[in-house]
Sequence to fold (501 residues):
Amino acid sequence: MSSTQRAPGAPFGASVEAGSFRVTRPQSAGDVMGWLRQHDVQIVDLKFTDLPGLWQHFSITLPEVHPDLFSAGIGFDGSSIRGFQEIHESDMLLRPDPSTAFIDPVCGTPTLSMICDVVDPVLQRPYSRDPRYVAKKAENYLRQTGIATTCYFGPELEFFIFDSIRFGQDQHSGFYCVESAEGDWTTGRDEGAYGGGNLGYKARYKEGYFPVPPQDTLQEIRSEIALTLQQAGVQVEVHHHEVATAGQNEIDMRFATLTRMADNVMIYKYICKNVARRHGKVATFMPKPLFADNASGMHCHQSLWNDDVNLFYDAHGWALTSEACRWYIGGLLQHAPALMAFCAPSTNSYKRLVPGYEAPVNLAMSQRNRSAAARIPMYSDSPKARRVEFRCPDPSANAYLAFAAMLMAGIDGIENKIDPGPPLDRNIYDLPPEEAKNIRQVPGSLEASLAALEDDRAFLLKGEVFTEDIVETWIDYKRKHEIDPVKLRPHPWEFYLYFDI
Fold:
């Protein structure tokens, strides 16, 4: 919910310094080889992202690490990765990106982790379904248009930390059960493990924003996550408890260029999950795990720059924004139904995108107003701080694809000078019905978003950033593996509604 984005600083490579934060990064294969000796590394871990957005990995020993690894790559079975190859074309390659190397703070054995690009060994070129390749192409296309040299992203990922989670479904039963000592529903529970009685201080529904300990029981875990992220080279600005009861959190990273920030999102999720597990708890980026309370979003701050000039700033424009900024917003709002297929890509996402839970369902532009899909933060009047916050995405998204899709929508908005409509600086949820009916809203289901993507994809295909193949594969995967299985299974609430009919 908060973001204190500052002006762009040093790139991720070389040295990054802000206050006491300083990490020196390798930039070449030779630098990585030096790191192996400097840090007494014993294992090298190679990470890459499957199509839905989950990190995959395997590890190699030091004798297998040599300069040719970064050019020739190393083989793996692409047919075992979700959304990748068929079994008759399974051989694929990984090429590590040396600029992503970090000493892995999760591992007890001295381990150097690198994020890899996926390569088709037959064609000897980047694999078209590699999400990271799509993000890179989006950045390259932006430069080719001449609109800007750089796109910065600053996502705010919210997530829950629970004490435990149990779930299951078979042919004759189904359930889930969330346990959290912070949950408002635990006020009557005997917490004997802590000496008997109940410790109280439970966050009431929708009242979890900013309480201090002991109500906020996760302060130390979030601090550990933040410091562990910095060990991995990801700069953290702020952390806090979020609105929902039962352990909703937010840790904000400093913004970065598009692909680098998507890399950072993957590191963020990895470290959040592993630090929580270290404490006997579980972290989830599922958008809506709790009924009747706020869900987790991934509000995405974004701006376009020519070198060190912010193209979204105009001292005389509405909310200090330029025409280019407003056209960019116009592109986001115009293409939002299709964007949701990548930005809110789970069936669970649409249990978040409903009125009443600070959810940005209304496709309108505003300043300060969190009920609009596109918001201009007004914390600072500095030219370097001017940006748009697109509030519809959630953390179940594959960041590489979601960020790339948003940039492509914004570029289309600028190229076609798409009018975002007049700003709505009132609480949109409280508008009278005759006004509210004229405001477009995000789709109400993943199925509707995929249908919108089928009809509105031309903006994604420009410059071959997205290909027909990856769009079709995404739609087919989501329908076969997510929408249809959910449709087929009885829902517990259906028993309440219909069992006695």
The two ends are 44 Å apart (CA to CA). DSSP finds 13 helices and 21 strands in the chain. The longest strand covers residues 150-162. The first helix runs from residue 29 to 38.
